[in-house]
């Protein structure tokens, strides 16, 4: 029962937040270098984003990889789609492909 509730909550979070980052820590206090790097990139683009601190939400931390088919954190979703983790976000930021995705999101 708990796993179903958690899966439903995750899907709702992804659906209701145009940009959401599942990370370790918070944007003001990232608790791993990968999360810190993704937060820094998002802040450069000056788009508001939601976040979930998976360290404070162990049920989400456990369940999200099964839903997203992505094993590690952070995980960035834009408009309901998994973008990826730190390496992918950094690569997309560097080659300019992240900005158009973020620009599609209306505040």
TrEMBL record:
CDD domains per UniProt: GRX_PICOT_like
Keyword check for Metal-binding: yes
UniProt-recorded Gene Ontology molecular function terms: 2 iron, 2 sulfur cluster binding; disulfide oxidoreductase activity; metal ion binding
Domain of life: Bacteria
Protein keywords: 2Fe-2S, Iron, Iron-sulfur, Metal-binding, Redox-active center
Positions of [2Fe-2S] cluster binding: 32
Pfam hit, one: Glutaredoxin
Residue ranges occupied by any Glutaredoxin domain in the UniProt entry: 19-83
NCBIfam families: Grx4 family monothiol glutaredoxin (TIGR00365)
Family: Belongs to the glutaredoxin family. Monothiol subfamily.
Name of the featured protein: Glutaredoxin
Lineage summary: Bacteria, Pseudomonadati, Pseudomonadota, Gammaproteobacteria, Pseudomonadales
